[in-house]
Design a protein that fits this description.
The complex is a heterodimer. Chain A is mainly alpha-helical. Helices cover about 75% and strands about 0% of the residues of chain A. Chain B folds into two domains: about 5-230, P-loop containing nucleotide triphosphate hydrolases (Rossmann fold, 3-Layer(aba) Sandwich), CATH 3.40.50; about 240-360, Beta Barrel (OB fold (Dihydrolipoamide Acetyltransferase, E2P)). The chains are: A mainly alpha, B alpha+beta.
């Protein structure tokens, strides 16, 4: 009796909890998206009717367009630099002929662990004395620092899967170290490099705390603009902007998933695969 | 062996305080098939990597075609290498894998196509051009690796346990194929293996490695008939070892005083009288005579059969000798024996002094 009881009870409880967590995590996003199509002039939920007015307002607002332009012009260079530097670091660390590699790795990872507010305060102090505070260049540097760990993480994981005998083989076949990397190793880690770059873009585009510290009225990314709007007059424009941010992140993640799927082995015709838990 | 293709002179490699390869010297003749045989960790793979240029020797010199190659990076050595796990490039097709060394040498496209086609036909993989490595079986991957290593016509081909991952039947087939390929191309091959049968089947000469040292290098026959050390005698084929003290050493013949009386064997080095030594006899060189009897000029050991193992082609007898040693004797199992020997029978084991070798008693 009890066995049957608990056999039904625990899976049901687990399902309920999972559902609760999913609802809790997703509902704010869903609500923001719904409000962005609201016909009411205020942030009310549920909205009385549907309209595209806030998207229209967004596309006609020079403040918002400037903010989007700032975000984009910060995001692209910082993602590119972070991808380049992060990939180089990951390759060097994975091939592991560097003394103190573990030490260097944890330094690179530091921005992921140190509270953002501390990083932000530190950057503010240093960038001010360098004259970078309130400039686009300052934001690019800051976002690059924050994004590098994500690139290093993804590329390092991919490097661990690449047999280092492949490069040795390329060398014996007549390739210089440089060509061996570009012809053999790089194509194999390319999907990871691209996902690292997507992560870097998302990190930069969504970043708020450091950006608040380093932005100025003229150089103000989307997130900072939203932050100041939330504290002032709140109309659903901000929800429309939020929905766009969300769409950007979701698109980036989807793209990343697609890339990762391609990284997996081309279906081997002879390979036997068993559904999980059914292996003999 | 005057004009060798490859010459190693006192080559050593240390990793920290561990000496992986200890003062190895040998010469490889043009067109020769040399196997480096030894247990894992004996330094044979490290030796191969030093020849390929993937590892730098700590000391010593390596010469290829009369020129020292130690300063040359691997990509300037023109030495083909087949890796243990094949190391095929997973993102390239079979044809692109094989074309890789040719592309690195900036060959013309038409020439590359022609050569790739020829070599794939040679390894029996014509028509597999567009497959990816993971779509091939282990044996096929092995052939691609081989094709890729010979397509640029290196004078020297290095193979690092290339058949280790294949099952027994396929391995034996590939052994013959590699051997035929060697004959056909005239390329020199250094072949690393820990499988003595493989080395025996394939090689012109074998170098036996143990603990970073090259214990002995020679033809299969030399290693089998004249092992220089206990390790070689035991690693190449099977050997009976009888311990004793040197009583007499004259003209390359040595007499040992053992628990089973005086026994004689050939000695290649000088022994001091009274020093500990071993006498090594192959199981198939020992004859069994039932009971006592006159046996001419053969040394004799009295004993009793403690075990009979029927192996189809052979019967093996384990003899407990009167002196308390164990002796393995192998006999052709030619058919049903008229008077079969069974466990408990008293026998006399005999062997000729020429079939026994006296070795230093070292591990």
């Amino acid at each position: 009796m009890t066995a049957i009881y608990s056999e039904r009870f625990w899976p049901a409880l687990r399902a309920c909890m999972c559902l609760g967590i999913v609802v809790f995590l997703i509902s704010p996003m869903v609500i923001v998206v719904i409000i962005s199509f609201s016909s009411a002039p205020f942030l009310t939920f549920p909205p009385p009717g549907l309209s595209l007015q806030w998207y229209r307002k967004l596309s006609g607002s020079s403040v918002w367009l400037d903010a989007i332009a700032t975000s984009a012009t910060v995001m692209l260079p910082s993602a590119l630099i972070a991808t380049f530097a992060g990939t180089a670091a990951a390759v060097g660390l994975a091939r592991g002929r560097i003394p103190g590699a573990a030490m260097i790795a944890s330094l690179i990872m530091a921005p992921m662990i140190v509270p953002v507010i501390i990083t932000a305060a530190g950057m503010l102090g240093v960038f001010r004395s360098w004259g970078l505070q309130g400039t686009r260049l300052g934001l690019i540097f800051a976002h690059t620092t924050l994004a590098i760990p994500y690139v290093v993480f993804t590329v390092l994981a991919a490097m661990r899967l690449v047999d280092d005998q492949l490069e040795s083989a390329a060398l014996t076949l007549g390739a210089t170290q440089w060509r061996a990397f570009w012809r053999v190793t790089f194509p194999l880690i390319l999907p990871a490099v691209l996902s690292g770059m997507l992560f870097a873009m998302v990190v930069s585009f969504d970043e708020l705390v450091v950006s608040i510290f380093l932005s100025s009225p003229t150089v103000r990314p989307v997130t900072v603009q939203m932050w100041s709007d939330v504290r002032g007059d709140v109309d659903p424009t901000i929800a429309a902007m939020g929905a766009l941010l969300l769409a950007f992140s979701v698109a980036a993640l989807l793209l990343e998933t697609v890339l990762n799927r391609q990284r997996r082995p081309v279906a081997a015709p002879a390979a036997k695969t068993f559904p999980q838990g059914m292996a003999p | 062996m005057t004009e060798g293709l490859l010459h190693l002179n006192e080559v050593s490699k240390g990793f920290g305080i561990v000496i992986a390869v200890d003062r190895i010297s040998f010469t490889l003749a043009e067109g020769e098939f040399l196997s480096l045989l030894g247990p894992s960790g004996s330094g044979k793979t490290t030796t191969l990597q030093m020849i390929a240029g993937l590892t730098r020797p700590t000391s010593g010199e390596i010469q290829l075609a009369g020129r020292p190659i130690s300063p040359l990076p691997p990509y300037k050595r023109d030495i083909g290498m087949v890796f243990q796990n094949y190391a095929l490039f997973p993102h390239l097709t079979v044809a692109r894998n094989v074309a890789f060394p040719l592309e690195m040498r900036h060959m013309r496209r038409a020439e590359i196509r022609r050569r790739v086609e020829t070599v794939l036909k040679l390894v029996d993989l014509a028509g597999f051009d567009d497959r990816y490595p993971r779509q091939l079986s282990g044996g096929q991957q092995q052939r691609v690796a081989l094709a890729r290593a010979i397509v640029f016509e290196p004078k020297l081909l290095l193979m690092d346990e290339p058949l280790g991952a294949l099952d027994k039947k396929l391995r034996e087939q590939m052994q013959l194929e590699i051997k035929h390929l060697h004959k056909r191309l005239g390329v020199s091959i250094i072949y690393v293996t820990h499988d003595q049968d493989e080395a025996l089947v394939m090689s012109d000469r074998i170098g036996v490695f143990n603990k970073g040292r090259l214990e002995q290098i020679g033809t299969v026959e030399q290693l089998y008939e004249q092992p220089m050390t206990r390790f070689v005698a035991e690693f190449v084929g099977e050997s009976n070892m009888v311990r004793g003290a040197v009583r007499e050493a004259v003209n390359g013949c040595c007499t040992l005083e053992t628990a089973d009386g005086p026994l004689r064997g050939r000695a290649r080095q000088a022994f001091t009288i009274g020093s500990a030594a071993l006498i090594s006899v192959r199981p198939e060189r020992v004859r069994l005579e039932p009971g006592a009897g006159v046996v001419g000029d053969r040394d004799r050991i009295q004993g009793r059969i403690s075990e009979v193992i029927y192996m189809g082609r052979l019967r093996k007898y384990v003899i407990d000798t009167a002196g308390g040693q164990k002796l393995v004797v192998a006999r052709q199992a030619a058919g049903v024996e008229a008077k079969p020997l069974t466990v408990g029978d008293a026998v006399v084991a005999t062997f000729a002094a020429d079939d026994a070798v006296v070795l230093e008693d070292t591990r």
